[in-house]
């Protein structure tokens, strides 16, 4: 990005980048765990998978909401206008392997040179990818594409319905049932604190009252 002395509100820019990086890292962790579940095949627990799908959908929605505020949590929804005001300008190209860059990108990018820069700074797809996409689209008719989209939407609707049903059942299953009656509890508290509704113990008519004075024993 541009040097901080040439930026407007550099602290806000750094905070926005930090927020984006943190949220994307959470989504990445959820995606990795979901892929790990899919590799388990027979050991796969569908409730766990649905929970992770729900977490992934929630994480993506949070990323979308974050970008609407330009990644400023206390900001307004400017649809990313603040971020678009700042250009990403490379300051230095190094032909050697950069350990710090490799660590920051978890080994995905080790060199920042004339070969890697166009791939990561481009705003359009690679020409090869664009050609492959056009060739795939050209081999299918419009009706076939519409049917495939409808089928995929149907699968997604079924998955979301199953997830919602599973969540509703889990909520009903784990919903805490009341273990006491509030009215009876209030009566018990009033009885202990104030003696309400308590009756004195019944005594026999001929018995001495509790605490009555007794005379000295008779002398023989």
From TrEMBL:
> Where is the region Disordered?
197-220
Which keywords does the record carry? Answer: Activator, Nucleus, Transcription, Transcription regulation
- Single Gene Ontology BP annotation: regulation of transcription by RNA polymerase II
Write down the superkingdom of origin.
Answer: Eukaryota
Output the Pfam families linked to this UniProt entry. Answer: Med8 (PF10232)
Q: Name one GO cellular component term.
A: mediator complex
Primary location group? nucleus
Record keywords: Nucleus included? yes
Subcellular localization is given as: Nucleus
- UniProt-listed InterPro entries: Mediatior_Med8_fun/met
**UniProt GO MF annotations:** RNA polymerase II cis-regulatory region sequence-specific DNA binding; transcription coregulator activity
Q: How does it assemble?
A: Component of the Mediator complex.
- PANTHER family tied to this protein: MEDIATOR OF RNA POLYMERASE II TRANSCRIPTION SUBUNIT 8 (PTHR13074:SF9)
Task: Give a short account of what the protein does.
Answer: Component of the Mediator complex, a coactivator involved in the regulated transcription of nearly all RNA polymerase II-dependent genes. Mediator functions as a bridge to convey information from gene-specific regulatory proteins to the basal RNA polymerase II transcription machinery. Mediator is recruited to promoters by direct interactions with regulatory proteins and serves as a scaffold for the assembly of a functional preinitiation complex with RNA polymerase II and the general transcription factors.
Which family is this protein grouped under? Belongs to the Mediator complex subunit 8 family.
Instruction: From the Swiss-Prot or TrEMBL record, give the protein name.
Output: Mediator of RNA polymerase II transcription subunit 8
Q: Which organism is it from?
A: Steinernema hermaphroditum
Organism classification: Eukaryota, Metazoa, Ecdysozoa, Nematoda, Chromadorea
């Amino acid at each position: 990005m541009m040097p901080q002395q040439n930026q407007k509100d550099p602290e806000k820019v750094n905070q926005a980048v930090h927020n984006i990086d943190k949220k994307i890292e959470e989504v990445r962790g959820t995606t990795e765990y979901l892929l790990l579940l899919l590799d388990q095949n027979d050991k796969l627990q569908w409730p766990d998978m649905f929970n992770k799908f729900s977490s992934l959908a929630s994480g993506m929605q949070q990323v979308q909401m974050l970008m609407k505020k330009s990644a400023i949590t206390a900001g307004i929804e400017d649809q990313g206008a603040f971020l678009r005001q700042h250009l990403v300008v490379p300051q230095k190209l190094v032909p050697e392997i950069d350990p710090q860059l490799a660590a920051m990108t978890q080994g995905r990018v080790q060199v920042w040179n004339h070969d890697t820069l166009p791939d990561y700074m481009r705003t359009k797809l690679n020409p090869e990818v664009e050609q492959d996409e056009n060739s795939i689209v050209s081999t299918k008719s419009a009706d076939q594409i519409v049917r495939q989209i409808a089928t995929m939407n149907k699968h997604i609707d079924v998955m979301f319905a199953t997830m919602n049903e599973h969540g509703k059942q889990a909520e009903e299953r784990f919903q805490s049932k009341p273990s006491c009656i509030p009215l009876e509890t209030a009566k018990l508290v009033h009885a202990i604190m104030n003696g309400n509704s308590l009756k004195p113990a019944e005594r026999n008519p001929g018995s001495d009252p509790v605490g009555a004075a007794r005379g000295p024993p008779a002398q023989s």
